Amino acid sequence: MKYPTISRRGFLAATASAGLLWTPVIAGCGALPVQRARSSKARNVIFLVADGMNTGTWSIADYYMQHLGQGQSEWVKLYQQQAVTRSLMETCSADSRVTDSAAAASAWSTGIRINNGAINIGIDGTVLAPIHEKVQRSGRSTGLVTTTRVTHATPAAFAANVVSRGAEDTIASQYLDREVDVLLGGGEKHFSAATRADHADLKLAYQNAGYQLLESRDQLLNSVEGASSRLLGLFWPSHLPYTIDRDANPDIASQVPTLQEMMRRALSTLERNRDGFLLQVEGGRVDHGGHANDVGAIVHDQIAFDECIAVARAYCQENPDTLVIVTTDHGCGGCQLNGVGAGYKNTDATFFPGIDAIGASYEHLQSALPSMEQEAYAALVEQRLQIAIDEKRYQQLQVERAKGGYAVANLIKKWHGSFARTGVNWTSGNHTGEYVELCAWGPGSDSVEPWLPNTDLHDVMEQALGLS
Asked: What is the phi-psi region of residue 122: left when phi exceeds 0, alpha when psi lies from -120 to 50, beta otherwise?
């Protein structure tokens, strides 16, 4: 069986069909200067999160972009041009030096550190006001865009309150009750009557409340602008597929928009509010690639996130009253490129061809196993990871499949041996506790200190928007 070759998307392919209200040329955006803020007050905030990004992840994505001829990443260009305020951020939660996404994003949202696993619930049980509430009271709109389920921890912390981050059905209901204006990502199962525990049809409830429901990439790009000032976009039952799998599979690509396409549509909707907006955009599957120790997945999702920095730069050219914050909530997996060979001279010759050769995530190959015949499945794995699946290995996969979870993906990962193939290795499949990168530009960015705890970003946003 023949499978489609892997498409390598050009950097920020044009999406004029999305009907944006602003249409600057984005390609080569690194040449656009970042305007220095003339005021400390902002009308808008764009908060960009590469969830689970170690500096090693950022580095290998930048190296790989150069290898593809795309030049350096937008994030690196910002630093090269000294165009932004740069900082290191401490990411601790209330009960651990190593945070989870719920506690980290809640710190941004409320200015208070809470325990891992909770969303905007204080350590004494106090229900804390998420930043959405304050932004909404100011007359501004709010939007949450992610490659994970839209009810997942990072976006949820900007608007919801739950004792446990796993209460995603409740989070979906809270978004409606609290009137979050734009929700774009995965997680359709938490809005569908067929899959919710209470069998409530939240998709219909959102539509009855005036939200435009979008359920495919075509609808996102080509639906009539202006039909509604509120959007609910649900493009996959759970998390959106990894970028590497989306790009290699036309059926997925026709269904699932890219992160920057969702961001553009969110901006064109939110900017109708003349009072301004807060938009959070999360490259959430970067974190999942770290948990899975999946180098192909993490590189391509980090690059997809970087495209959103270019969108933000272009948007700020026409809207300089916008504060942009770019950061991560924590590291994950300890991803690093290691030296290969005597004197490390084989590093480049290992890393670049090694990444080039990867055509699927371990997760995608696990999901494909139940629906494919043995011969076809073996051909798929051979093409995408250069692993031979003989009869013995195929039977091993069936044993692992019966165990559930990520057992199949973990076995494929073991056989793949990405360290030997790419030089990239990992410290664990867990979150890590190092200080993380942060940069900002626009009104209020001068208040970002060279080193800060994650709770300080709440004050930065609050002061810039005049919420206090």
From this structure: beta
Q: pLDDT tens digit string along 329-339?
A: 999 999 999 99
The answer to whether residues 366 and 406 touch, using CB atoms and an 8 Å cutoff, is: yes
Query: Given this model, what pLDDT does residue 14 score?
Result: 36
pLDDT tens-digit readout, 179-211: 999 999 999 999 999 999 999 999 999 999 999
For residue 325, being part of any structural domain is answered with: yes
Q: Are 213 and 206 in contact (CB under 8 A)?
A: yes
Amino acid identity for residue 233 in this structure: G
Question: Which residues form the domain of 451?
Answer: 30-335+429-465
Separation in Å, CA 417 to CA 112, 284, 353, 413: 41, 24, 14, 6
Task: Take residue 385 and report the two structure tokens written for it.
Answer: 């990871």
| 86 within domain boundaries | yes
How is 415-443 classified by DSSP, letter by letter?
A: HH-HHHHHSEE-S-SSEE---EEEEEEST
Strands 212-214 and 231-234, bridge-based pairing:
parallel
* 445 and 415 co-located in one domain: no
Beta pairing class for 336-337 and 424-425:
antiparallel
DSSP conformation class of 121? B
Q: Render pLDDT for 63-96 as a digit per residue (tens, 0 to 9).
A: 999 999 999 999 999 999 998 999 999 999 999 9
Are residue 372 and residue 242 in the same domain, yes or no? Answer: no
Give pairs for 445-448: CB < 8 Å, separation 24+: 445/37, 445/84, 445/85, 445/323, 445/324, 445/325, 446/37, 446/40, 446/85, 447/40, 448/85, 448/87, 448/325
Joined together, the tokens standing for residue 68 give 């593809």
Catalytic residue set:
101
On whether both 253 and 375 belong to a single domain, the answer is: no
